[in-house]
Amino acid sequence: MSQQKPTGFDERNFxxxxxxxxxxxxxxxxxxxxxxxxxxxxILRTVGVGKK
Amino acid sequence: xxxVLILGAGVSGHTAASYIKKWAGRKAEVIVMTPNSKxxxxxxxxxxxxxxxxxxxxxxxxxxxxxxxxxxxxxALAQEVFPEGSADHEKPFVRGMRTGDPTGEMVExxxxxxxxxTGPKLNFGxxxxxxxxxxxxxxxxxxxxAAHAEHAAKELKTQIEKAKQMNAADEKLRVLIxxxxxxxxxxxxxxxxINNVDFVLREAGVRDRFDLTWISNEQVLGDFGMGTVxxxxxxxxxxxxxxxxxxxxxxxINWITQAGVNKIEEGVAHYETLAGEFxxxxxxxxxxxxxxxxxxxxxxxxxxxxxxxxxFAKNGFxxxxxxxxxxxxxxxxxxxxxxxxxxxxxxxxxxxxxxxxPPHFISKPMHSPNGTLIAPAPPRTGQPSGTMAxxxxxxVVDRIKGRKSPAHEAPMSRMGAACVASTGKxxxxxxxxxxxxxxxxxxxxxxxxxxxxxxxTFGEIGLAGHWLKHLLHYxxxxxxxMKAFWSFIxx
Lengths: 52, 491
Ligand SMILES: Cc1cc2nc3c(=O)[nH]c(=O)nc-3n(C[C@H](O)[C@H](O)[C@H](O)COP(=O)(O)OP(=O)(O)OC[C@H]3O[C@@H](n4cnc5c(N)ncnc54)[C@H](O)[C@@H]3O)c2cc1C
Prior knowledge:
The complex is a heterodimer of chains A (52) and B (491). With 52 residues, chain A is mainly α. Chain A has a domain of 26 residues. In chain A, 58% of the residues lie in helices and 0% in strands. Chain A contains two helices and no strands. The model of chain A has no long low-confidence stretch (mean pLDDT 86). Chain B has 491 residues and is of the alpha/beta class. Chain B has a domain of 240 residues: FAD/NAD(P)-binding domain. Helices cover 24% and strands 25% of the residues of chain B. Chain B contains ten helices and 24 strands. In chain B, helix 1 runs parallel beside helix 9. Chain B is globular, with a radius of gyration of 22 Å. The interface between A and B is medium-sized, with 27 and 36 residues. The structure holds flavin-adenine dinucleotide (FAD). Flavin-adenine dinucleotide binds next to helix 1, strand 2, helix 2, strand 5 and helix 9 of chain B. The site of flavin-adenine dinucleotide (FAD) has 34 residues of chain B, from helix 1, strand 2, helix 2, strand 5 and helix 9.
């Protein structure tokens, strides 16, 4: 069976994609609990700056 | 006692009404005129649109909430504003048509202060064949209201059932999601919806039987009408283009950008691209956001002469303290954006939320060789709407209490915004893209490279974002119901 090669550079093939580890972390509970706390602080900081 | 009339009970109108009543107490009679009997937490309509929530989960009756808070509720559609009064009215007033009981009757409400928070008119008529799938245009669905979203969920379910009956050799079903016109805004909502559709199709085990395609008027994916944002993410400053493309590649979602959809027929969307080419995309299920315009309000002076053009911009949104002079993109400045949201003609009138007329786009407007403007209009999200409502409420209360302080300001050029875009609803398997931007309107004087503060502008995808989104759903509905300590919850 002949394998089809890309005919040229297609940007969509080279878009950064998450590694399996990153995908795992996205739903890994202990990590996400920490991220949840950090996210809340970061959001309050961004939103709070404008309110000053 | 001064009378404050608020038109619209959405995010901004309801926020303004609740704070004015809380702060001014008996010094103010607060009246809300709005056509719907229910309040809707619009961001969660996305989940209604994939059958993960019901209309009841995202709405509640306004009348009992207003009764308890001491706010007068007039269920009517405002149609005409008389900022100087008329031959029969000493004071300014608004004329509307009752939509509750008795429907169709005209009602006139006088005011001392008027806040226009009427949000958008969902302008389906701007694109032939575009609709909400039921009473309007049967070809495409919408998630802009809870009722639209409920209908969208039914249509999606039909496609999922169809997919379950399919054989491996059958042609895949096509889903098309994005913007239904060359100058739409609200890409964020469509972006959330396509990600949620992807999620429910995976959950149903039929994702491989669908091709998902995004279509939008953005110059690049991830523009969101904000002219693309540099997000601090995973140790890099990445463009929102890279951020959005990465997610779409990961989820196997195709995309067509720089496309102005101009006609919808049964199963086909026609579009023109910035390159001036004309294309069409077939679909079995399509959710395309309509363009927004201002709601059709007319204004008259004391003599009855039509002054609508003085009060409202051509797109129907109300003119406020912005710089509306025609300028080239190079001359645009963040200072053009409004600060107090007060009408330049009448100092007792404000427009907040989506109802105010932006001075110009944020993304660079682009034209096709055929002269068609294909560019996203500025984003009009909920959090800035709440923040400006808060500021205007403070100004109105100062006036009611006779304070001589200057008007409170909430310019989008000095405002940070958080947008938590769901990419799948599940307590353990879900996720959302949390995108925070400061300022909403880029300030290239202060931040020359990207227009935004690189430390305060960030993006992250994960389950934590979903928890946040879910939490916000309950918090904001709690706040809108004005239950105990509601005012401690930020806007
Ligand atoms: C599907 C979807 C998802 C979204 N998700 C998000 C999100 O995740 N985060 C975010 O920040 N933003 C989100 N948004 C945007 C957000 O919903 C809006 O920014 C916000 O609702 C704007 O508030 P508003 O008060 O200006 O308008 P609205 O909330 O639309 O309220 C307008 C009010 O005016 C009333 N009205 C209309 N015409 C008249 C009239 N003639 N007289 C009197 N009253 C009238 C309407 O009935 C309504 O009560 C989303 C939008 C959509 C469509």
